[in-house]
């Protein structure tokens, strides 16, 4: 099986998580930012993640891919029920998280932006959505304390969530993304959770390139 991804992409991370949890043989192909041809050729639209299944069919939509891969062998990992408190935490913090991660992602070390042209394409794609990214980065002084307050509140919620299920595919990709933000304070249970899931899923956190 082959998955087409961006390394920074939280939705692609869901695919990497399920493949990692289940030890599925997966070949990864990083699509370069700005490369519309590859995804257009495969699935007729510019999107990642894309899964090429053993039967030759292609799938998009990260959660559909997760559910499909989860059926391939036991045990299952992407089962209900979703922890509604953790999902609500993600939903209410998504805008704030995005404001912190996007201006850092465009400067980071990911394969999909490892050439000047691809990095520029990423900057342009994100600037179209979020406006001036340098200005957004400068507002980190405002956003980081807000985020830290929300992360402190998360700690008790996350300590009650013990077994891997669908909830983890909703929250972990965003916490992993936040690990690229220096001065973010993950509370102890949250940090323990992040390390546990990263290890089980065999995906790296981003602390080594935080700023
Ligand atoms: N609902 C989709 C969302 C995927 C998505 O938003 N992917 C982004 C990358 S993070 C994308 O493909 N952007 C289009 C582009 O690169 O132009 C899913 O869950 O798979």
From TrEMBL:
<dbReference type="GO" id="GO:0005829">
    <property type="term" value="C:cytosol"/>
</dbReference>
<dbReference type="InterPro" id="IPR036249">
    <property type="entry name" value="Thioredoxin-like_sf"/>
</dbReference>
<dbReference type="InterPro" id="IPR036282">
    <property type="entry name" value="Glutathione-S-Trfase_C_sf"/>
</dbReference>
<dbReference type="Pfam" id="PF13417">
    <property type="entry name" value="GST_N_3"/>
</dbReference>
<dbReference type="InterPro" id="IPR011901">
    <property type="entry name" value="Grx2"/>
</dbReference>
<feature type="domain" description="GST N-terminal">
    <location>
        <begin position="4"/>
        <end position="74"/>
    </location>
</feature>
<dbReference type="InterPro" id="IPR004045">
    <property type="entry name" value="Glutathione_S-Trfase_N"/>
</dbReference>
<protein>
    <submittedName>
        <fullName>Glutaredoxin 2</fullName>
    </submittedName>
</protein>
<feature type="domain" description="Glutaredoxin 2 C-terminal">
    <location>
        <begin position="85"/>
        <end position="210"/>
    </location>
</feature>
<dbReference type="Pfam" id="PF04399">
    <property type="entry name" value="Glutaredoxin2_C"/>
</dbReference>
<dbReference type="InterPro" id="IPR007494">
    <property type="entry name" value="Glutaredoxin2_C"/>
</dbReference>
